[in-house]
Amino acid sequence: MKREHLLIVVAAIFYGTVIVGGEFFLSHGFSVFEVALYPILFMTLSVLPLALIKPRYLIPRERLPFFVVYGLIGAFAEFGQFVGLLFDIPVAVVALVLYTQPVWTLLLGAALLGESVTARKVASAGLAFAGAAVLLFGSWAFGTTNPLLGFAASLCGSVFVSLWVVWGRKSGINEQHFITTTLGWGGFTCLWLVVLWPVLNWLVRDPAVTRLSADFPAGHWAYLLLFAVVGGIIPSFCFFKGLRVVDASVAGIILLLEPVSAALLAAILFGQSLSVTILAGGALILLSNYLVSSAPKPAKGGEVQSLGDESWSRGRRL
């Protein structure tokens, strides 16, 4: 396994804390909007001094429009990750449904980046989708209040997560430093969340979703800072550094380790059972990860033309 692939694996494991952390903060009185905003705000404020010390990490002026768009994608992705939890969908299921994203990442990577679409990638994405389908049909046993709406919200979130992966890869192709990408994505995501908050507050009359407050115990703020480091800074640095080499479609499938990590953490921290459907869906997802990670290295020069693998690509020099 290449070092860059290993970085994506490490990022996926640490990103597994995001949904679990969201469940923790929601159970302690935070709104969905606060859970989406505060950790990424803390992450951005923690990374900013690095850019101020070394100006080469600052966002180039010509790249500002790119990061404005990236921030909008990030805002919807951040919020979309937690909405399903409001419908009493278990943490493990929300995480796994979100990660139908390899299907969308495969399609978007091909359309927007010209990445290869191989039989191996298609099979891996198909296994991921099958894993989510197993969870969908098994979710009725959880007694959720509105499972279809919860799943729909999580699926919308998965599309924006896919766009987030693709935009991160675009940043890597443009050779942006991983600190710059983390700062640009995080900073503009925070700005978009704040700008869109009045609209959200008008559309959704539920304080559990839209409340924005700073009235929390000091201990909760300490947990938020820890959450920003473990679920934000560490995995983002690894992820964006790996994306300088790894295709978005491949990174999207490797990220499937995240829901597996989240399921294990949820079982340990919240005592949520790992049912047969969760185990079956997780097994399919792990198999899809193995398929894409074990793919043979392409020939030098970046050109891939393999009839046996039914692939086509446009060579790209990174």
Please mark out the parts with pLDDT under 50 across 5 or more consecutive residues, or reply none: 140-144, 299-318
Task: Supply the number of helical segments.
Answer: 14
Our Rg estimate from Cα atoms comes to 19 Å
Q: Which structural class should the secondary elements be placed in?
A: mainly alpha
N- to C-terminal distance: 18 Å
| Coarse shape | globular
Name the beta content range.
Answer: under 5%
- Helix % is over 70%
Main β-sheet description: none
Q: Count of DSSP E strands? A: 0
Topology pattern, helix = H, strand = E: HHHHHHHHHHHHHH
Question: How many structural domains are formed by the residues?
Answer: 1
Mean pLDDT: 80
What's this entry about, in short?
The protein is mostly helical and 318 residues long. 72% of the residues lie in helices and 0% in strands.
Q: What are the defining features of this structure?
A:
318 residues; 72% helix; 14 helices; mainly alpha; disordered C terminus
Topology of this structure?
Elements: H1 3-15, H2 17-27, H3 32-53, H4 64-83, H5 91-98, H6 101-113, H7 119-138, H8 147-173, H9 178-203, H10 207-210, H11 218-242, H12 248-254, H13 257-270, H14 276-293
Helix pairs in contact: 1-11, 1-13, 2-11, 2-13, 3-4, 3-9, 3-11, 4-8, 4-9, 5-7, 5-8, 5-13, 6-7, 6-8, 6-12, 7-14, 8-12, 9-11, 13-14
